[in-house]
């Protein structure tokens, strides 16, 4: 499996791991997105990254093509890794630090951060207006 892209759904990749063929769900976690239960056997990689909209640290459960199936916030990297360990078993997790970014990638991250923070700010303003109405 190749390395993940720099950005996945507005999240900058910080650490990642790909699953060995024998990795599978423990059955101790059930994940729903809306009313739909996620098939955790489709998860072949995990990403820990920064949500560029608000700076939160997140753990993303991804397919082999780095499509995010689910995403959860955590206080720190250790808590995110512990959650991953509770959800899957098999070979040990081999987390990798994402490589240093090229200048063009850094520019893309900063452009995306600005756009997402502007959108987040606008959503908060709209929410306040709705609360006042």
Describe the overall structure.
It is a single chain. The chain has helices at 77-87, 103-132; strands spanning 7-8, 11-18, 24-25, 32-33, 36-37, 45-51, 57-62, 68-74, 88-89, 96-97. The protein has 133 residues and is of the alpha+beta class. The protein has one domain (7-132). The N and C termini lie far apart (51 Å). 17% of the residues are buried. The mean pLDDT is 92.
Topology:
Blueprint (H helix, E strand, L loop, with lengths): L6 E2 L2 E8 L5 E2 L6 E2 L2 E2 L7 E7 L5 E6 L5 E7 L2 H11 E2 L6 E2 L5 H30 L1
Antiparallel strand pairs: 1-2, 2-6, 2-10, 3-9, 4-5, 6-7, 7-8
Number of domains: 1
Q: Give me the oligomer status.
A: single chain
> What is the H/E string?
EEEEEEEEHEEH
Radius of gyration: 16 Å
Mean pLDDT: 92
**How helical, in percent, are the residues?**
25-40%
Please tally the helical runs, counting DSSP H or I stretches of 4 or more residues.
2
Could you give a short account of the major beta sheet? 6 strands, antiparallel
Secondary structure category: alpha+beta
Low-confidence region ranges:
none
- What is the first-to-last residue Cα distance? 51 Å
Principal-axes shape call: globular
Beta-strand content bin: 25-35%
The number of E-state strands comes to 10
In summary, what is this structure?
The chain has 133 residues and is an alpha+beta fold. The protein has two helices and ten strands. β7 (57-62) and β8 (68-74) form a beta hairpin.
């Amino acid at each position: 499996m190749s390395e993940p892209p720099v950005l996945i759904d507005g999240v900058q990749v910080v650490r990642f791991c790909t699953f060995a063929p024998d990795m599978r769900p423990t059955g101790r976690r059930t994940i729903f997105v809306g009313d739909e239960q996620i098939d955790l056997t489709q998860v072949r990689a995990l990403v820990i990254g920064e949500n560029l909209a608000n700076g939160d640290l997140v753990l993303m459960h991804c397919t082999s093509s780095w499509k995010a199936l689910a995403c959860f916030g955590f206080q720190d990297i250790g808590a995110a890794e512990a959650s991953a360990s509770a959800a899957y078993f098999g070979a040990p997790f081999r987390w990798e630090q994402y490589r240093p970014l090229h200048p063009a990638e850094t520019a893309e991250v900063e452009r995306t951060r600005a756009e997402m923070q502007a959108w987040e700010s606008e959503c908060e303003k709209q929410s306040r207006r709705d609360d006042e109405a």
